[in-house]
Amino acid sequence: MTERYLVLADGTSYAGQAFGSSRETIGELVFSTGMSGYQQSITDQSYNNEILMFTNPLIGNYGVNRDNLESQHATCKGVVVRELARRTANWRMLTSLDDFLQQQDVPGISEIDTRAVTRHIRQAGTMRAALVNKITETTVAELQQPLDGSSLIATSATHNAYPVPATGRRIAVLDFGLKYSILRELTKRNCDVMVLPPTASLEEIHAVHPDGILLTNGPGDPQDVPHQTLALIRQLEEQYPLFGICMGHQLFALANGATTVKMKFGHRGFNHPVRNLETGRIDFTSQNHGYMVDRASVAATKLTILLEEINDHCVEGLCHQTLPAFSAQFHPDAAPGPHDTDYLFDKFMDLIDRHPVHN
Q1: CA distance 125 to 265
Q2: Where are the domains of the chain?
Q3: Using an 8 Å Cβ cutoff, are 246 and 253 in contact?
Q4: Residue among 246, 283, 314, 340 flagged as catalytic
Q5: Using CA atoms, how far apart are residues 252 and 198, in angstroms rounded to an integer?
Q6: Is 333 a catalytic residue?
Q7: Which of 38, 51, 231, 290 makes an SS bond possible with 27, Cβ 3.0 to 4.6 Å?
Q8: What CATH number does the domain located at 157-354 have?
Q9: What mean pLDDT comes out for the span 336-359?
Q10: Is 344 helix (H, G, I), strand (E, B) or coil?
């Protein structure tokens, strides 16, 4: 196997074995604590521009299949694993993880002590990193250049509207880099869905005649999103029931006067406990975010904190005090799971039924 190196911006480097694409890459190194769901994570557009490291020691043992894609094209910059499975088997499997990453032009590195790298990131914070086939004098210098995240949503979201037809409630989905699992949850509830690009105007949304608006997940810093998008969200929440997920949650917060901040190393994985502050209910959630809503900034808005992460008290959900609008920082559409919080889609349906729109 070909040798490959993981090089961090602080000069720390690790030698491993190459798999996937042969190209070199630079991105923000992040880690996920999920024990399964590597295919869903790799094709999650929220990982756009990031090098994704898995803390589970064995990755790739059930290959890649058609059903577990969250998008058609992976936009993560690279994949880091402790051990790449040498034998893969599953009745739905179409190809191996190695072959899939070659097809997607995503480089990978194995035989890395991912536990040591994760501990390093937890102490030093998320940082830029490179996957290179040879360390040169300029490798670390290149890592000092800032990443441009301003166009990430543009490279992840749809550019054209498209329907996912059914006969139930009509939902306009504003796509910032959506996961297919969101559409699957809406389809389970017989929703008539129209997916719209993030550049859609208020008039284009009106023309869909929606019963509700869903703001999806997406990559990058929410503060890079144009001010006109925040103005649009303010208009939408006054006219339609609204539900924001992940990036949609952060944009909902910004549109209502709260602020967001970058986290030291973020929340990524399928085992984050979240408490509902209204009911006391505790659920395990699927999360993938490197930014969060500044808790102190919520006090000056018309928003109420609905959900919080138990370990660090990060804001995980908001609701508007006077309008039928709410949000969740995590993924209630969780794939492969856990499915504790898919009730939030039912909450959205109930909100639509209690606040009918007269189109």
Answers
A1: 5
A2: 3-143, 157-354
A3: no
A4: 246
A5: 14
A6: yes
A7: 51
A8: 3.40.50.880
A9: 94
A10: helix
Residue ranges at the known binding site: 46, 218, 220, 247, 250, 288, 290-291
303 burial level (CB within 10 Å; 0-12, 13-18, 19+): buried
Per-residue pLDDT at 265 exceeds 80: yes
Nearest to 182 by CA among 39, 80, 328, 356: 328
- Answer yes or no: 320 catalytic: no
Contact 109, 13 (CB under 8 A): no
Q: What is the pTM of this model?
A: 0.96
Closest CA to 323 of 259, 207, 234, 214: 234
Q: Which two tokens stand for residue 65?
A: 């299949």
Q: Which of 44, 249, 331, 342 is labelled catalytic?
A: 331
Residue list for the binding site for L-glutamine: 46, 218, 220, 247, 250, 288, 290-291
Q: Which residues lie across from 307 on neighbouring strands?
A: 276, 317
Annotated catalytic, 73? no
355-358: long-range contacts, CB 8 A cutoff, minimum separation 24 = 355/241, 355/324, 356/211, 357/210, 357/211, 357/212, 357/239, 357/240, 357/241
Tokens (6 digits) for 359: 């189109």
Strands (E), the chain: 3-8, 13-20, 25-32, 50-54, 58-59, 78-80, 83-84, 107-110, 127-132, 162-164, 170-174, 192-196, 212-215, 242-245, 260-276, 282-293, 303-309, 315-320, 325-328
What distances in angstroms separate CA 304 from CA 73, 301, 307, 343, one per listed residue? 36, 8, 9, 19
Phi-psi region of 246 (alpha: psi -120 to 50; beta: other; left: phi over 0): left
Give the whole-angstrom CA distance, residue 292 versus residue 302. Answer: 18
Answer whether residue 45 shows pLDDT above 80.
yes
Smallest Cα–Cα separation from 273: which of 286, 260, 284? Answer: 284
261 contacts: CB under 8 Å, gap ≥ 6: 291, 292, 294
CATH of domain 3-143: 3.50.30.20
The mean pLDDT value for 160-167 works out to 97
Catalytic residue among 98, 333, 340, 342: 333
pLDDT value of residue 145: 80
Eight-state DSSP code of residue 51: E
Q: Give, for 249, the enclosing helix (H) or strand (E).
A: helix 247-255
- Spatial distance between the Cα atoms of 177 and 179, rounded to a whole number of angstroms: 7
